[in-house]
Amino acid sequence: MRVLIVDHDQDLLDIMTYSLRRDGYEVIAATTGQQALDRLHADRPDIVVLDLKLRGLTGFEVCRRIRLDSEVPIIMISSSGEEADVLRALSLGADDYVTKPFSLKQLAARIEAIARRCRTDSYARAVRTVKAGDLALSLQSYEVTRGGGDPIQLTPLEFRILYMLAMNEGQIIPYTRLVDYAWGFEDGDANLLKTHICHVRAKLGLPLEGPGAIRALATVGYSLVKHRTVSGVGTAPPPQTRAWATGRATAG
Asked: In this predicted model, what pLDDT tens digit does every residue of 123-157 receive, in sequence order?
């Protein structure tokens, strides 16, 4: 398993690297946020251990950027145990939060626990499909088919937007909730959301009105106009699900 460790403290970074390599992990090290993003895209790690306090880009910002197009598990580490920092990290998509100082055995146990969970999630995703009207969303591949046609690839961000609308077909989803779900933080750009929805409409050839259309309600939000039936296979939503992503998928 390949682990990317990002920490501004070179001494601690060396210690964590040595310990994890001794435990059999392949370790990639970085000391800045930009280095972390570069190594993420170049080396494709299985897990990221990310320090909050970094030079340049903060750990929060690195986490946010990772979540724009990657589901890689992130363990945030920090000397700050403030509840606000923990909640912010988790809301941005971090899978775990460990407060310094911590034991190397504790870190290794957290990594292994997430690795086990990911193996389970990967198995579940292999049989998960959500349907809304004539749309079928594959939670494994981020592909969507319409009316039984050829699969159409969406970006992870586009898929999360459509997923939220499909799981709440016929209901109005406020801009703030869609932005928070898609980007993982509340201060996203509503105009950028509009752009991504336009891309989804164009890629899938959705109607401008009627069943299956994504309808915009000025100053309020968006809704996927309801068909008569909604069904699905599997119950677990994709990463970064919030409490208001109510499940309409059913086990089968």
From this structure: 445 446 788 889 998 877 788 999 888 999 887 77
Contacts 24+ apart (CB under 8 A), 183-191: 183/64, 183/67, 183/68, 183/157, 184/63, 184/64, 184/67, 184/91, 184/92, 184/93, 184/240, 185/64, 185/91, 185/92, 186/91
Residues facing residue 48 across a β-bridge:
4, 74
Per CATH, the architecture of 2-124 is what?
3-Layer(aba) Sandwich (3.40)
Q: pLDDT tens for residues 13-33?
A: 999 999 999 999 999 999 999
Q: Tell me if 59 sits within 8 A of 51, measured CB to CB.
A: yes
pTM of the predicted structure, to 2 decimals: 0.52
Helix (H) or strand (E) holding 232: strand 230-233
